[in-house]
Protein 1
Amino acid sequence: MLKSLQIKDYALIENINIVFKPGLNIITGETGAGKSILIDAMSLLLGERASTEIIRKGSQKSIVEGIFDVNGNKKVKKLLEKNDVDYFDEMIVRREISLKGSNRCFINDTPVTLNLIKELGYLLVDLHGQHEHQSLLRKETHIEMLDEFAGLEDELNEFRNFSKQLRNKLTELNELKHREKLLKEKRELYEFQIKEIDAVAPQPGEEEELKNELNILENSEKLLQLTSEVFLELYEEDKSIYDKLGEVKNKIAELKKIDSSFNEKSNEIETALTLLNDVSDFLRSYKDNIDLESNKLNEIRERLSSFASLKKKYGGSVNSVIEHRKKIGEEFSLIEGFEEKLNSLSNEIEVLRKECGEIASKLTSKRILVSKEIKKGVEESLKYLGINEAKFETIFNYDFSQNDDNDYIIIKGKKIKFADRGVDKVEFHLTTNLGEDVKPLQKVASGGEVSRVMLSLKMMLAKSDRLPLLIFDEIDTGVSGRIAQKVGQSLKELSKHHQIIAITHLPQIAGLADHHYFVIKQEKDNRSTTSIKELNPGERINEIAKLLGGEVITDANLKSAKELMDIK
């Protein structure tokens, strides 16, 4: 809902701030007073292009700012979050056009692009008149209107889920085919590398073990000399450490017979002898196993040399060599099993194509069914609104897949291109003249007719429609008397579900307003200035009386005005 609209230094407007309310908001005023300027300013706020010519003479820039209540509008919230703009239930949209040619746009005081303003406008307002911002004239919105009326959200979600799976599988297939080409080019290289690495077959941690073993083998003579000398000193030669420690043990045994405090030390000597014996056994075994004539030294050196060669080629470490082997092994296995993988993926895709086709067919059937209901309702409503010979049709089309296009689903054996909402391309067609063929709305409907067609559609879509605000500029073009009353009643009914802002010159429509605004053009300091005010009940009666009879208000006019306003 639009809560307020501020316009500053725009054309004839110096500075106005209009507070709008829920329900039916009617704007009236003399011809040339500036009612259309309000709509122009509103369309500027919704993203239409602007010229510096709209800047009021003597000013540096024009500013249009709208405050919208977007509480509960999930699409607005999602759009703002996607574009890193803070979301608040009360949203401020502002545009500034300066003489310097700059065009600044803001949402909640965050600078944004004009495209984002326009995209946001499509989620907030439908503006009907001689303006671009009309969803009815954008054929891409027709299928959305149809689906909302039919209540197809569950079916659409189901289709989107399956079509997303299909697109993911198609992407996977394309990537796989691309990889197949690259991998086949690398097949010989991978085969050579696998054989080269497997010939050495390095194991994790093996290099460290070999280096340690090499160090030992390269120092075997020194190891033999040192271990032999230590063994002699500890155990084997006369007066060895073991023998001397045995003598010490015997003397402590004598001591503990005299003083029991030597008991503990006697035990420690026993332990020391045991440990010394263990060390001597280890030294005896170690020196006896040293092989000074072993060929293993050369074997280890050759293997470490092989490791060095592999490391130089494949990443600088044995682990990187092992990782490279694993990777190319997987790639090579993929090449070997490519045909099987492609067939499996292709089969999955074919199943998804048919499943998507079945869901899309159901969507089409339901759309065709509900389009007949819309046709009947719109034609009856247009007749009620004074377009007697109207014929309204919903035209369905779809595109067949071309030979080189893989982005399709299958319906009754046919390959048909698909989009987010299925395969249907939907467009509303209309004729308002007897004997003429229906044509696209934008080609055949005048501004007033488009407004009445949209009013007819909105009456049917009211409870499900996504747009909270509808603005009608020329809905009473070519309308008078009894039909005007019906247009007003239709607007009144529609305002139960939407906020309506409508500019009119007909008392039959104005009399049904919930809130009535009057546009005035005044002369001030030799300049024309447009302003607007909300009328109180008494002022409303007088304004509607003027619409009925002119500037001179008679008692009959006042009485008729009260009747139109349903005032007793």
Protein 2
Amino acid sequence: MNHLSIFRRAISSLVVILPSCVAQESASSHKPPRVVVMCSVDQLASWVFDQSLPHFGEGGFRRLLREGVQFAECAYLQGCTETGPGHATLGTGAPANVHGIVHNEWYDEVEKKRVYCAGEPVAALAEFPEGKDRGPARLLVPTLGDLLKQKNPAARLVSVSAKDRSAILMAGGSADSVTWYDYSTGRFVTNTRWCKEAPKWLLDFNQAPAADAYFGWQWTRTGPDKAYADCVDDQPFEAAHLGSGGRTLPATLKGKPEAVLPAKEFYLEVYISPAVNELTLRAAKASCLANQVGEDDVTDLLCLSFSATDTIGHAFGPESVEARDGLLRLDALLAELLLWLDARVGRGNYTFLLSADHGVGHSPEWVKQNGGDGGRGLLHTMARGAAENALKEHFAAAKVEGAFVAQASEFSLVLDRERVVAAALAMGKTDAAAAFWQACEIAAQAAAKSKGVQQAFVTEKLVQGGATGDPISRAMFYAARTDRAGDVLLVLKPNWLEGTYAASHGSPYDYDRRVPLLAMGPGLARGTVSQAKVSPGLMTVIAAKALVVPTLKVATDTIPAEALQQR
């Protein structure tokens, strides 16, 4: 046993005074696993998973189904179905209105600018300048990882993803190692939030940019023809492959057709290909080895998020050959990861949990080709214009200069509170709060009539009203915070998108909220399908039980009885 393992056992033995709930859980007859893996597949909708399932191999997703529990009725509570909010829920067990990550970005009225969900003023390491200003400071509650390290400092906590916000928000600030891919340089990076010096393993991993090995790699179909029979290909709404200029496979990763050496365009192309998932798994293995994850009886936590499903889905659409192929390749990577864990810690000695941060809707053009309604456009701009015109008409007598709507983005409108109040006072209204509330109502009513908008909600009204029986308003309640979410929340019509992505997400509809949740490990039932209605935050609750950490107070889920191994 090496010195670090001896130290970890010594530290672990000091933690003897635990809350009663931990004492009860530790009395379980199941030996604690050596590693808990919390795995996220970015942009994996339940409908995409179900369509792809017949084409998976036996060692990845199918093994998890065969040896674990599938939660067939898993859906996010929140309607802000984006990467930041989803990974924060996976990390904390809480919905967005509690953990505070309401979007990937939002407008901060104090700073008077848009802020990033994983933004934090953190110094870069000299060797990795790309890693600066990233951290979990905008989370309002601790992650499971934070509580694990607080309860047992000897436990190792490692997090890896191609996206910074995914790795950071799943793990939190107490992690021993948090790394992510930078698509401008092709390297995996970190910063001083998690280490004082650049880790040797990461320097070794990046001796040449990690992505360079894929320069000239040909992305071909990995499955048989029948695996793609229900997919579409070479559609006008798909993005072109940067290295080949076409919209079909095979595609050669070069960044530009004429490129002879790796450059930033190539590193971006890696990011929107299956190659970045392969790199992520390599980085995760290297980090686990360097941090000695799973090397003794102290249960460690690995947070791992595969991002290529999202970047590919945005670029080519979830119906595309590229999306199906990326998922088939991920299935093979999961099989590789499970076999690696078998060899490293022993089959049955780890808990493996898998879910997604959000789902995805069909490409609007695909919907229309199949007889449905869908569309795209500058929907935020039009909603902002409609709200602005309505407010100007309402406050016409005040003759106040400037715009009443300060921001329109991330499915929300932010009003200029000072200008609204000034206009109300100029019209003789003395109750500033009531005047602002009325302005929000006017803006919401106008925006709801704008092109591509289904509904618009006043955020403060949602917060005060609580969770209702209506599924849309209920989902928006769990996305609403008056200090972050904006003053008016927009719900676009089903299958309507802002911008030029082939497909996207972010809505409160089932196709964005419903995602898979699979759990395999000691104490969990095998080959079982649970029909209990749960959220992906259940992943955190199951992980807490395996780690013998008190269930997070902010978590909304409990483990269904049928998911536990019966004795």
